[in-house]
Amino acid sequence: MKLKDTQALTSFEYKWLLKRIFPYIKPFMGRVILGFLVAIPVGLLDGVVSFSLKPYMDYVVGKQDLAIAGLTIPYMTLAYAMPFAIILFAALQGVLRYLNTYLTDWTSLKITNAVKVDLFSTLVRMDSSFFDQNTSGIILNRYLSDPDTASKGIVDNLTTLIISVFGAVSLVVVMLHSSWKLALVGVVVLGAAFLPVSLIRKKIKSVSNKNMVITGDIMTTMNETYSGNRVITAYNLQERQNKNFNQGIINSFNVTISLTKRVGWMSPIMYMIASCGIAFVLFYGTKLIYDGQMTAGGFASFVTSLLLLYKPVKSLGRTLSHIQNIFVAMGRVFELFDYVPKIIDKENTVQVPEIKNGITFENVCFEYVENKPVLKNINLNVAKGETLAIVGNSGGGKSTIVNLIPRFYDVNSGCIKIDNTDIRDIKLADLRNNISFVFQDNFLFTGTIRENILLAKPDATEEELQQALKASHLQEVISTLPDGLDTLLGERGLTLSGGQRQRVAIARAMIRNTPIIILDEATSALDNESEAIVQKALDNLMQNKTVFVIAHRLSTIKNADRIAVINDGCLVELGTHEQLLNIKDGQYKHLYDMQFKNLEEKTV
Ligand SMILES: Nc1ncnc2c1ncn2[C@@H]1O[C@H](COP(=O)(O)OP(=O)(O)O)[C@@H](O)[C@H]1O
Ligand SMILES: [Mg+2]
What number does CATH give the domain 345-434+551-604? Predict the structure, then answer.
């Protein structure tokens, strides 16, 4: 699945999306509802000030006592009480607002975290092909930023929506109280705010999707600047990086501004409509007062409400377009949840029995990209305890063959069997627990050397650890380090030399003590001296194991029980060193003459 090409098809299916996000909201439902409940009075209190204008104007300014429910309140009492009441209400609204902000932030963060944690757990299970197809930036963006947008915003904006709606409603009620005819005008003004949002939601979605890709590209440039810093320095690529980054920023600007172009007019248009409404109300209100249908206080209260109404209406417009954005991000998030990796456990998996016979490739065909076959009908049998060396032309498919064994990828046709069990019938974790892989460039995690080795077997005893250190020739390295085994490695272990990193990786493989060992050019990146030490370490690792080794060192190849020659995806020759050398015009002999012999002469 290419994350770039998202359709986010479900972005407008609000009901479906809400159903999907609901399980994440549910555990915090009490607080979410409390937050919403608190939001209601916060909104309603908006109407209080304008509501109080009417009695203030009519009674205090007009010097009349207020008769209410059989009580008579002198106008002077009102005059003194009302300013205090307003302060009291403002204070009350302040407290409620604080409570609301706290509840909103608390719940939205909790919900976001829950979504992120679940989404991340789907990411770590993805197949190799998923990581081949997607850049780090896009992955960061979709697995980290999108859940933020999707769930942090939801509670936040719903609260704002509630405050705005109830604010608007309370003001409309005050208006109705003053004059229902005028209030109608207000409601029309309010209604006009909703229209443009539905017109621009497609635009919002397309901009949001484009922005996701662009931001992903920017993040990828960032990552490459970090990981590729040596190459950037060595080849003076600083300008190239600057250009890439600038381009990303420009693209992001263009996309964002295109949305502003479309959305930016919403607010002024609403303001225009509101102004027309106010103008009309002034005109009509004057008439009502002159006709004696309305008091001056009522009118003042009404106009104030109408003016105050502008704020919640504007915020409604903005919130609705935010919510649109949230739904688009949610569409993308739940699209990811529904993406099931291709390589997963079958329903009825079996345990790997102790290997008795060996590993068999039966008519294995494989392609990374459709219609570009990489492996063509490979048949091969490696007996238990046998070491098979794989040689062949570069790009011929050697790494691909060994990548199929732990199921980084699955065969397209044919099958791979351990003893007589198809590896696809074996529990994935179990299969992988039986295989140790040493690559040309092994990833070390940020942390200590000890941590990096124990990753492979957290419950290893000190004795096992020491044994692994000894066998991997790491002891010499460790004794020179100030903190020994507890020396902190930089990101990706870059503070060690290539040979040292390789030995840590071998120790890691060693401590697992798996029956199958795969070595893919494990010494190729090293100089002769470290290669010799690493080779000794590897020899220890390979003892009594079933081994697949891809190497260019003649001694490694010669020492293997058999050699498989892979040429452009086909197994062309298979046999011992002597057997293969005796094939007239054979591929192995050719390779030997061209490559191994010379290398060997140089090494010795
Ligand atoms: N992840 C991948 N996605 C697409 N093509 C790939 C991938 N890895 C390798 N290939 C292609 O598959 C072919 C075999 O690659 P590989 O097995 O790495 O060769 P070797 O290890 O023999 O040098 C090459 O043409 C290579 O370009
Ligand atoms: Mg390779």
Answer: 3.40.50.300
